[in-house]
Amino acid sequence: MERRDWSVLTATVLGLASAGCGVKQGALDQQLSALRAEIQEADSALAEDNQQLSRRVDQLDQRMDGLEVMSGRVEDFEVELQSVRRDFDTEIDELQQAIRFNSPVHFDYDSPVIRNADRPLLDRFARIVATYYPTALITVEGFADPAGDTEYNLWLGEQRANAVRNYLTSMGLAAQRVRVVSYGESGDRQVTRGAWGENGLANRRASLVIDYSPEAGEILAGVQ
């Protein structure tokens, strides 16, 4: 309902009063009551408008606060990634909705045991996931150098990926959100093509992927 201009209401009341005896008292009281009701209705509408405006302002303030917090977290995350690159000499690819830590964990020849030298990186990785992507799907990719037969290397890559998965879950990551996949000696994924033994350390590795896409949650039912 539109609110009346107060000058119009005032003029109406004064007009009725100036009519004097030309207007019966009952009729005057009735019109005054109607005017009071309209005034009260206008006041109520104004109060409701003010409440809606106040709620809207509160919502905008909350969104602004949320964006400021998110901006701060993004900045902190970028600092964290730069620190990992520097401290562990690790190549990190920021994809559209995933982050790949390339060749961060290496293994001795024919071994699926995590080296002590690589534990600090896994500790840092677990902390990053828990802080910034607690609901993301983590994929541990296992690899082997080309020594031995293909089937064995596929198995060995899986053992290495499982070792990393077990370590990450022991650090607090949810087991259902960490899956493994083995690429064995896959040539297109070798860091140093054909290198094995003492020269093949770069190929004996586990890579880590943080998948924070909306579709990642749909994959969780099949996580190992």
Describe the structure.
- Helix 2 runs antiparallel to helix 3.
- The radius of gyration is 35 Å and the shape is rod-shaped.
- It is built from 5 helices and 5 strands.
- The two termini are 62 Å apart.
- The chain has a 5-stranded mixed beta sheet with strand order 1-2-5-3-4.
- The longest helix has 64 residues, at 25-88.
- Strand 3, helix 4 and strand 4 (178-184) form a beta-alpha-beta unit.
- It is α+β, with helices and mostly antiparallel strands and 224 residues long.
- 52% of the residues lie in helices and 15% in strands.
Q: Assign the structural class, choosing from mainly alpha, mainly beta, alpha/beta, alpha+beta, or little secondary structure.
A: alpha+beta
* Residue runs with pLDDT of under 50 for 5 or more positions: 66-71, 218-224
Quaternary structure classification: single chain
Rg is: 35 Å
What percent strand? Answer: 15-25%
What's the number of helices?
Answer: 5
Helical percentage = 40-55%
Shape, per Cα inertia axes? rod-shaped
* SSE sequence, one letter per element: HHEEHEHEEH
Mean pLDDT: 80
Distance between the amino and carboxyl termini: 62 Å
Strands of the biggest beta sheet: in what spatial order? Answer: 1-2-5-3-4
Major sheet: size, sense and barrel closure? 5 strands, mixed
Query: Number of DSSP strands?
Result: 5
